[in-house]
Predict the 3D structure of the following.
Amino acid sequence: MEYSAYNEDMENVSTTSLGFEDMVKDNLVYVDKTEYIYKLVTNRNYRFFFVSRPRRFGKSLFCSTLHSLFEGKKEFFKGLYIEKETDYDFQPYPVIHFDFSGFDFNDDSASFLRAFCSAIWYEGNRNGVELEMKTPSEMLNDLIIRLSDEKGRIVILIDEFDSPFTSMGSPELADTMRKAFNPFYRVIKKHSARIRFFFITGVVKLANLSIFSAMNNLRDLSMDPHFSTAFGYTESEMQKYFGEGIDEWFEANRDKCNTKEQLLERIREYYDGYRFSPDSDVKVYNPVSIGYFFTSEYRFDNYWDQTGISSLAVDLAKRVNLVSIVDECVEIRRFAFTSFDIATLWSGRLRTEYVAALLYFAGYLTIGASDEDAISLVFPSREVSSSFSENLLLRYMNEEVDESSLVITLGRTFRRGDAEGFMKAVDSYFSAFSYDLIGGAKERFFHIAFHGIFVMLRLLSFSEDRGLYGRSDEIVLYGEDLWIFELKVNGSAEEAVNQIEEKKYTEKYDYLIKPGMDVHKIGVNFMTDERKLCWIIK
């Protein structure tokens, strides 16, 4: 069977973590990444590789593809790069494949060790090797020796190596994990001559980590410019695999978007922007968010929280001034990426720049500018900045505030077109935050916090929307209403509302404005010292 890379029916776009063979069997859209795989498996200088990427970026699919490749299942690769464009021989090898994100254990050492040993026993059983229950390192040692003696060199794939650490909550269990993983990885290093290929993934970048002290033969691809687009979708891949569907939707919905380029720019704003190497300017889209976007009939929404992203990064960020992360880009030393040790998460020694690095690893931040000494981290997309800000804002609300009631009031007043009632609810929204958050906050914080309202209400909104004469701070389309907000900090509401008129922010949406349609022009001013909100509605 020849696999079709593009399917006209957007229902064939996957939003789940299916394996490679399942995607081919179900005729789902598979964005071909086998060129990167070919370069890895034929590399003459390295056989041991590591890559760090956020969750839901395709690491498991990549490992699953490697698994099928090394088992010699050529029929699944028909029509893909490695089958069509190379002379790869598809020689089969025995494969040991661990997915540590699937570990099911309680927050205690005994259940963790049982889960660890069971995973090794299962891989032995799958490969026809019966193992005795010993320590994890002893079981792996037996499996490698017996399997390689019988069938030759083996392949080892480890997916989400750091998942057990990020899912546990006690220093005692962390110590147990260190003691289990240290000898486990030493066994792999000891038997490197028996290993044809080794590939390990995680969220957190590993380098000089305590649990990997023995594995000094790993080639880290995490920030390699030649590997920066191996996960996620590039702009050219979006056009190749989804371009026809975008064209068809645009032709059928011209009343919803002025131009095709405007639609594409909206998609980029929401879901593009991840940059994984300071030496490459190429950015990629989040693949799972793109999947949800297409299967949800091109509805712009915040799918980030729907993808099961771990809240660990935001929870750990309680230890630093989160407002500084929201307000502007965060600059950290390059050293912070390579010296962060996953095993110290619960030790109390996590410095501010390590929290920022962790936010990068988790996908909340991405690479902006960089030089030889430091890397600036910024939000990758509107979707992620909105998600992070929403979680941040709700955490800093005063405990006595009825959050649910406030969100309901915001939604009801907005949906019935009650601009004055909505702005009064917005005033209550900002009054609900503790002084720790509002005091000393910069203008960017207020812009993101204001945009966070519409994220919470799941409304189609665009902040800093580019027009012919400037950028409007917030545009919201709902039903027959168009809302345009201009925001000022320590300025005046009158200046803000006049700017909407002077810079003709409505012109971009003239094609949408119909007789009887309400256009709300609202100038808003935040007085930080007085913690006062003023507005003018036209």
